[in-house]
Amino acid sequence: MIRLKGVTKTFDGKTTVHALRGIDLHIPAGQIFGIIGQSGAGKSTLIRCINMLEKPDQGQVWVDGVLMNELPPAELRQERKKIGMIFQHFNLLSSRTVAGNIAFPLEIAGAKRSTIESTVNELLALVGLEDKANAYPAQLSGGQKQRVGIARALATKPRILLCDEATSALDPETTKSVLQLLKTINQELGLTIVLITHEMTVIQEICDTVAVLEDGVVQEWGPVVQVFTRPKAESTKRMIRGSISTQIPQELMGSEKTLLKLSFVGQLAHEPVISQMIRKYSVDANILFGKIDQMKDIPFGMLLVELSGSPEHIQDAIHFLQAQDVELEVLS
Amino acid sequence: MLWQATVETLTMVGISTVVASVLGLPLGLLLACTDQGHILENSFVNKVLGAVINVGRSIPFIILMVAIIPFTRLIAGTSIGTKAAIVPLTVAAVPFVARLVESAIKEIDSGVVEAALSMGASPWQIIAKVLIPEALPALVLALTLTAVNLIGYSAMAGAVGGGGLGDLAIRFGYQRFRGDIMLQTVAILVVLVQAVQMLGDWIARQLYKR
Ligand SMILES: Nc1ncnc2c1ncn2[C@@H]1O[C@H](COP(=O)(O)OP(=O)(O)OP(=O)(O)O)[C@@H](O)[C@H]1O
Ligand SMILES: [Mg+2]
Which residues face A294 on adjacent strands? Predict the structure, then answer.
């Protein structure tokens, strides 16, 4: 659906900033594709290169078989109508009502009056804002504004939706409901969604695939569960450590006992592996910390366990866990 | 006499405000849109236009009035009287309007323009459907300010034979020592300015949706 080849972008100002340094990515149709990175990593620049709001210095951007880079203005505008975009700060027209904002892209595209009216009503229903049709953006909450943004982005029936930190200005509850809406759109309309964020929870909640961006370079990418449970890049590991924040007290780290960090993915999260281990090998397990989470629809658990027993037994127990396909890290 | 002078002042201010708006609005839009990073970025046009407008704005009105007499005669057919005064008033107001329009347009959040671009809007569509509607309250206030300024300038034009309240105040109030007439013209000017300002504020408030 979207393919980036060797995309670079440098900003020349007082200081030269290499915002993107050779991005290669393939975003398959129908996916929710997340791009995560810290502030300044180049996320916004990257997503803006997809619809040419930012022109790459080098490299190619292919969207649905069209090379976007060198399109003449009129054709580029035509292509942009097939790509919806939503923004962190919503960017609604303050002088238009909710219905007027949703009608805007249709007016731009030269749609007929009757078409505009029916499409606007459909979209108002889709985002659950029928009763706000005549309200102005200033009278809406952040979550409602983003719903208008989403409805507006969908008005021209695009195949792709780009989301630039779409939930970063919202509280956690509202974030959840907006993400839920995006998921629905992805499933029911079959839209390909590209979203960028600095929050792991957003990726975990709805993304199929994630790319980790740092310093204008994609550090790694793949299925969310794989990247988050078996991170390879240093920046991914840092991010995960930050988000799970298993700050282990010093005194525990220093103890003689063996400290393990276990991750369970998918079906395994339902299996009683720890009790099986205790029963099979004569070791004791003391659970220090645990949580279970969901990545999109896949359960994902994490346990911090302290093992005590004879060294051989502990070795056997570790082998057992590894044989069960538990992701395991020995901390001390 | 006072009534006639008031009508003359209103005519001068009214016509020059309208004409200056019609000429100044596109110039202001062009100035804003050719700025760096905007939809019609063009630093050559921007710099040249900016310089011309600055020259226009830096000439004192009294001097401008005299300097463009040939031009005034060409347009109005005469260089004295109310009709003639409209020409220099308009010429003085155009660059003023252009700058006010420019700053009103630049006040608009660039994100809104970006959203329109992402939908495939053309520069024209952005000007007509985003920039002007979003800046409308500010544009109304800009025109109000222009009209108020022109009331002041028109009194100056009156002092050199342009007719209107300024003319009356100088000829009767000052030269013939009629303090009462002086006072009355000043009072009318004050009321005019207040009325224009209040009207402008009211319209802007009605348009303001933020
Ligand atoms: N128009 C610009 N001119 C100059 N530098 C820019 C411009 N846009 C972005 N940059 C620089 O490029 C780098 C990447 O910016 P970008 O906005 O893509 O980061 P980001 O990952 O989206 O960060 P954030 O999470 O803060 O939005 C930053 O160092 C930024 O300062
Ligand atoms: Mg950003």
Answer: A299
Q: How far is A202 from chain B (nearest CA, A)?
A: 23
Read off the pLDDT of residues B19-44 as tens digits, 9 standing for 90 and up.
Answer: 999 999 999 999 999 999 899 999 99
> Which of the ligands is closest to the CA of residue A42?
1
User: A22-59 pLDDT, tens per residue?
Assistant: 999 999 999 999 999 999 999 999 999 999 999 999 99
CB contact (8 A) between residue B119 and residue A80 = yes
Residue A315: pLDDT band with limits 50, 70, 90: confident
Q: How many domains is chain A partitioned into structurally?
A: 2
B140–chain A nearest CA distance, Å: 14
Run of H or E including B177: none
Given A91, A138, A156, which is nearest B111 (Cβ)? A91
pLDDT tens digit sequence for A241-290:
666 555 566 666 666 678 888 887 777 777 788 888 888 888 888 888 88
| Best residue for ligand 1 mutational test, from A8, A14, A15, A43 (most atoms within 8 Å of Cβ) | A43
Residues A113 and A81 grouped into a single domain: yes
Q: Are B19 and B144 in contact (CB under 8 A)?
A: no
Q: Measuring from atom 30 of ligand 1, which residue has the nearest CA?
A: A40
Same structural domain for residues A179 and A278? no
| Strand A209-214 versus strand A32-36 pairing type | parallel
Which chain B residue has the Cα nearest residue A150?
A: B115
Q: What is the CA radius of gyration of chain B?
A: 19
Q: Name the closest ligand to CA A45.
A: 1
Domain of residue A299 covers 250-330
- Distance, CA of A172 to CA of A156 (rounded, Å): 29
Same-domain check for residues A202 and A257 = no
Q: Do A286 and A198 fall into the same domain?
A: no
Structural domains in chain B plus CATH codes: 2-209 (1.10.3720.10)
